[in-house]
Design a protein that fits this description.
CATH class of the largest domain: Alpha Beta
Shape: elongated
CATH topology of the largest domain: BirA Bifunctional Protein, domain 2
Strand content: 15-25%
Order of helices and strands: EEEHEEHHHEEEEHEEHHEHHEEEHHEH
Number of helices: 12
CATH architecture of the largest domain: 2-Layer Sandwich
Radius of gyration: 26 Å
Strand order of the largest sheet: 6-10-11-16-15-14-13-12
Number of strands: 16
Distance between the termini: 37 Å
Bound molecules: aspartyl-adenosine-5'-monophosphate
Helix content: 25-40%
Number of domains: 2
């Protein structure tokens, strides 16, 4: 008999069906026993009245994988309005070992380190699984939004010869006797590919040897990247990024409704037009509001990001705010300066509920500008950039792009304080397993 999922049961009332999943919970009452079965689609209540089946169930701990054949019976108090009666149980493997926490409780009662240590089983908790369903839907929305704007998906190397974001937090490795690095970002490759497809995007892991232990940094995270050619300036990048955020939120709503409900998520407010504020104006506003002169700051500190996040919500009803014009000296070498404001650039960040979610902007596109900038920044040997500089040599149009950190997006969306709570198998200073 073909297996059906819990979500399909109500269409089979009165029929004999075959289901399979994990024993989520057993409730062994005096006169009757209940087996709550969990599958990918949800929970099914199975009523065990027969003595021999009950004895069998008593020997099968929670989390054992099991198949059940029985009759679908209408039961308004059961999940989905139906239950399975007169079941025949067929364990699909050995009885599960005792689980370190009760997965059937509405919330996992365990500390974050314990949850992470036991991630292979903790992730089965419906609320933890829901986080990653939302993540999958967000990535689906990211892809759909960019495909609709004619971006082409690419897959670039993760073992690379040059650091792209900064030399400090790059993982070095031995590559057949030569030094190499784990990619910090697909930055250089996505720019090169603008010369091929005009518009490209990538979803993939990137690596940062973050030396400090913070609630918002991982040593490996999922970067959602896009890059586009023939732009006027960074405002075109902002428009594409804003449309992509809208696509991600729409993707989540379309594909992850039950997960949003389970986690009681308040969907963020996204205004029709992006809210954009200049870096210098952010510091001016903060100085005015707090009485502390921060106008000479070279970057936004986390407290400044929180401030501007609150401002955007208060003044514009938006959970998102783009900051443009970061000082050129504090951004990566590929950053395009703002010709109208010396010292400032066409770099952007998108702040989501007070946390930097996206970086991006317009890039340099002239070969000579790259040679000059890299040299000014102390690069003595440009041979490591040869392929990249070639792309600039052969007619690269004005271009720009952006990158989201998926885990940061989920952390703010779900309002959790630590990024590790929304990361499948976090990698950080202290954690390499599981
Ligand atoms: P940046 O280094 O700012 O820019 O990274 C882009 C976004 O990635 C996320 N992020 C992180 N998430 C978790 N752990 C980390 N250690 C971490 N570091 C960054 C943030 C951040 O906004 N090449 C540029 C992007 C571009 O210009 O297109 C870049 O990588 O959400």
């Amino acid at each position: 008999m073909q297996r059906i999922l819990s979500s399909q049961l109500s269409a089979h009332a009165g029929e004999t069906v075959h289901v399979a999943g994990w024993i989520h919970r057993r409730r062994l009452l005096k006169s009757v026993a209940f087996l709550i079965l969990r599958d990918a689609a949800g929970l099914t209540q199975i009523v065990v009245s027969e003595e021999s089946v009950r004895a069998q169930l008593e020997a099968l701990p929670e989390e054992t994988a099991i198949a059940v054949t029985g009759t679908v019976t209408v039961q308004p108090s059961a999940p989905g309005g139906v239950e399975i009666t007169a079941p025949v149980l067929e364990p699909l493997t050995d009885p599960a070992e005792p689980v370190p926490f009760d997965l059937y409780r509405p919330d996992l009662r365990a500390s974050l380190p314990t949850v992470l240590d036991h991630a292979p089983v903790a992730l089965r908790h419906p609320k933890l699984a829901a986080v990653h369903r939302i993540g999958a839907a967000a990535v689906g929305g990211f892809r759909a939004a960019l495909e609709a704007m004619s971006f082409v998906e690419i897959h670039t190397p993760k073992i690379v010869g040059t650091a792209t974001e900064s030399g400090a937090n790059v993982f070095k490795l031995d590559y057949f006797g030569r030094p190499a690095y784990l990619a910090q970002s697909p930055q250089l490759y996505k720019q090169i590919m603008v010369g091929v497809f005009e518009r490209v995007y990538e979803v993939g892991p990137v690596f940062r040897a973050e030396p400090s232990d913070t609630a918002r940094h991982l040593a490996s995270y999922t970067s959602l990247d896009a890059e586009m050619g023939f732009i006027e300036d960074h405002r075109d990048v902002i428009a594409a990024c804003h449309a992509t955020v809208a696509g991600m939120l729409a993707g989540i709503q379309a594909k992850a409704g039950p997960a949003l409900e389970l986690l009681d998520v308040t969907m963020p407010a996204l205004t029709e037009k992006p809210v954009v504020v200049h870096f210098a104006d952010v510091l001016e506003m903060i100085s005015k509001a707090t009485g502390e002169d921060v106008t000479a700051e070279p970057d936004l500190a986390p407290a400044h990001e929180r401030w501007i996040g609150e401002w955007a919500l208060r003044e514009h009803g938006s959970d998102f705010v783009f900051v443009e014009g970061y000082p050129t000296a504090h951004r990566a070498f590929y950053t395009h300066p703002d010709p109208a404001r010396p010292g400032y650039s066409r770099a952007i960040d998108l702040i989501f509920r007070g946390l930097e979610l996206v970086s991006g902007g317009q890039r340099l596109h002239r070969h000579a500008d790259y040679v000059r900038t890299l040299t000014e920044r102390g690069e003595t040997d440009l041979s490591a950039y040869a392929g990249y500089l070639d792309a600039m040599r052969y007619g690269m149009p004005p271009h720009g792009g952006f990158a989201f950190g998926l885990e940061r997006f989920l952390a703010r969306l779900l309002d959790v304080p630590n990024i590790r709570q929304v990361t499948l198998f976090p990698r950080d200073l202290h954690r390499l397993t599981p």
